[in-house]
């Protein structure tokens, strides 16, 4: 196996499945199964989950809400998703810990780096909820930050599309997919992988990002087995 420790970033919207809002239990169970297959191989898995299926601070602010309040709501939404994912993983017999960037002691452990690493070494999946704990950030930034902190080998960004294209494949039929692309090329071509804060943090720390389609069953395990799935952003 190419990677010993991965950080999987899942968007909140991914959890909606066919729904317009909230969490689809079927999708959650599918994700749990896929993650179980990975842990069964002995790969250490940490997960950062978004909250966009429930609330986004920017959306609140555009309706007149205070941005910081909205971001707090967004961060709590990621904790809700984290609890749902934890429950689904435990149903699949995967030992799991949820650590949050905002302390909610009755519900989850606080984020403690050394503890998180210990859990991973013991084969537990660690879900990081609450983003970075700060407003004006995204869970992509949280994913990169946590990945660096726990010394993950790679970030796997599960999305709806199967990689990075020369143009938006939903708008331009001639768009082709990259198997590999450098951080510099992503920036110079104006391609969208993550928000700028998250992306430059990854680049500065030489942490590769693989963008792949998490909604096709089996993709995660194929990717980790070395199959040519998704697009890898590297130095
Ligand atoms: N958020 C935040 N700080 C963080 C991470 C997230 O304030 O470090 C808030 C922000 O309002 C964001 C929401 O949580 O809109 C949900 O996160 P995100 O939009 O990244 O979720 P995703 O798009 O991955 O579902």
Concise synopsis of the structure shown:
The protein is of the alpha/beta class and 235 residues long. It has 8 helices and 9 strands.
Strand order of the largest sheet: 4-3-5-2-1-6-8-9-7
The CATH superfamily title: Acetylglutamate kinase-like
Q: Which CATH class is shown?
A: Alpha Beta
Could you say how many structural domains there are in total?
1
The number of helices is: 8
Strand content: 15-25%
Mean pLDDT: 96
The strand count comes to: 9
Major beta sheet summary: 9 strands, mixed
Estimate the global geometry from the Cα principal axes: globular
The gyration radius over C-alpha positions equals 17 Å
Question: What level of helicity do the residues show?
Answer: 25-40%
Question: Secondary-structure map with pairings?
Answer:
Layout lengths: L4 E6 L14 H16 L3 E6 L7 H6 L4 H25 L4 E5 L8 E2 L2 H9 L3 E5 L9 H11 L4 E6 L20 E3 H6 L7 H9 L4 E5 L5 H6 L6 E4 L1
Helix pairs in contact: 1-3, 5-7
How would you characterize this protein structure?
The chain is α/β, with parallel strands linked by helices. It has helices at 25-40, 57-62, 67-91, 113-121, 139-149, 183-188, 196-204, 219-224, and strands spanning 5-10, 44-49, 96-100, 109-110, 125-129, 154-159, 180-182, 209-213, 231-234. Helix 1 links the parallel strand 1 and strand 2 (44-49). The model has no long low-confidence stretch (mean pLDDT 96). Bound molecules: uridine-5'-diphosphate (UDP). Uridine-5'-diphosphate binds next to helix 2, helix 3 and helix 5.
